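so my prof wants the structure for this chain in the tokens format not the other one, which i didnt know existed until like an hour ago. anyway here's the sequence
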Amino acid sequence: MSDQRLFDQKKTDPSKMMGVPGAYSLAEILSQPQFWGRCIQGLEREGSLAQIRRPFHSASQWLFIGCGSSYYIALSAAAAWSRITGIRARAIPASELLLFPDLVLADAEDLAAVVISRSGRTSEAVQAARLLEREKNIRVLAVTGTPDQPLEQIATTTLPLLPCDEQSTVMTRSFTSMLLGLQYLAACQADDSTLLKSLGKLPGLAQPAMDSLHPQIRDFVGAHQFVDFVCLAQGPYFGLACETALKLTEMSVSYAQSFHTLEFRHGPKSIVAPETLIVFLLSEQGYDAECDVLEEMKRLGGTTLAVTNRADKRARAASDLLVEFDFDLPEVARLAPYVFAGQLTGLYTGLGKGLDPDNPRNLSRVVVLDEEKALP
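here's what i got, hopefully its the right format
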């Protein structure tokens, strides 16, 4: 029996799949809503969130920093932070800070920093935290899924998340858990009790959505052979589009790109063809303009997968696969589930190519550089 057939037979019970390619990734993807519930319960019980925020109380701007998936968390978290708190926030890769600190910190007055790393050991993230804390006298909040690591030891304080590290190489559960934790902290910072309640409702709403989505994505991917992938979004969803493209690249060794949705018209649309899967993460605020692009790409012959909270007839007609959540939550509270479709598409595309998405080639779970080769 092939690994794919065995994987499909046992998909309802991830605990039985260990040793099958992609088994850890599937279990970690499917576990996200339940894990979020435990994370939020932990944050609700955590009496130290006010104390954690104290070193940053005077900050008039925030800098979110990460590498790879953690940088894409930073992109979405910074956008959410600005919307929730009303305080300016921006995101950069750790390497930009290390190589061009004068540009990044040109307007660094009253700046607070968030450094994100699943392992807490990523060399560039640790170096960025060290530069900020010890050379620039800028306080750092560490966000990590692995306690008692160098990042936590350098930072002023750490967001108290449950350990969310994966057994697979790629980030799935840790991505959404760290993003959700930062949204929860932003709601606390803004004293927004309504948003806190909404975030608390998300896991219960996301579980049936995941249960429904999983077989849809498996069957959709199984019915197509895509040559390349494009992931499109705007605003707080753009970081999620970048992460979607990265999951497709990592888990299936496929060529995937991400763009702001309306920017895709300005040259990149030349690649659109039936064998190109174009993933749209449709926002509420930009819905009409983004739907215009969705319809245009469908007319050009692309295969389309649209993810939205509520769709109208335009999106339904222009989508080869439509993922509709129908969550009765504010937009800023429902960001995390928008990566589900990309995670599962990457997983099943990789399996269809005979790969093991748990262990992509050329990748390690954490990038740790030799000290002599570390960035300055």
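also thought this was worth mentioning. Residues 1-6 have pLDDT under 50 and may be disordered.
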